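Researcher: I'd like a structural prediction for the single chain below. Treat it as a standalone chain; there are no partners to consider.
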Amino acid sequence: MWEIYSTALMGIWENSGFVNLTDKNVGMLIVAFILLFLAIKKGFEPLLLLPIAFGCLLVNLPMTGIIGAVGPDNIHGGFLYWVSKGIDHELYPIIIFMGIGAMTDFGPLLANPITFLLGASAQLGVFVAVLGAMGLGFTIKEAAGIGIIGGADGPTAIYLCSKLSPHILGAVAVAAYSYMSLVPLIQPPVIKLLTTKEDRAIKMDQLRPVSRLERVLFPIASTLACGLILPACAPLVGMLMFGNLLRESGCTERLSQAAQNEVLNMATIFLGISVGATMEGEAFLQVRTIKIICLGLIAFGFSTAGGLLLGQLFKKLSGGKINPTIGAAGVSAVPMAARVVQKVVQKENPGSFLLMHAMGPNVAGVIGTAVAAGAMLTLLTK
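Model: Treating it as a single chain, here is the predicted structure.
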């Protein structure tokens, strides 16, 4: 009887995860615990970092079959295999863009259209990182996926990377969302480096009111313009504008609320856990992952600098009426980048309120990053 029990126990042990756990699995489990700590304890982008971390934890548990092929026919994938198909078929990033559109007020952008250019200039880091990645030996498609981190737009980074270089998706996604969560730490030093105290103390005039007609026409006109000029960006920009039209039309409140809440939350959960599922030890723990994370930081810094430099030009052209710090909000981290600008400015001038002015380039940055991704897709998928 004891022999039967011992044989059964030995069989269980030999087929357990403990026996099949590799050094890289252990390393990635530690990474998962660190990400969980940052999400739960430090509050770094927890809505996505926590699902990413848990997906990373699940995929590095050996013998679960949760993502790989299972069954005697070796065809049927596990749970995460099918959930991850939402990334392969670009479903989750586009749904998230719809939710972002439903949550976003484009009024500050429409009230001061010149801030479109600030959002465009804040894409500088995207192209700097592309060149840097190619210099480090990455292919042009990999470099494009890495460069888009500079836009500080996680869904766009995942969308572009899943199409051009899915094998580095995990590293790109973790870098993108990590830097998005670190906006309050990364941007203030760059702002202070490229602006003076006098610059940061400039007060701006109140924005003009934006009519309902403008708000309704903007998403329709933007979709037509982007879809005709650069068709590859139509899925992202189109769904962003569709979500915004739900918000501004005045007759689809239920749909707008659903897009902002239930639909967006579900897509966020599945996107995060799918990205985590790409972080298997064998694929993630490589030298190129460190390179990607470093390039992402460089991209983010140059994007912030690009917006600030154009902001300085606008300050001079306007005779000192435009506070150049709003250019730093041109990255796509909505509304975090705009809030960072507000906090930095109020330290110099407590009576200055630039949040709504900064929201103009902030939402322009979302459009700008999507357009940059569309341009790369157009050029690299011919």
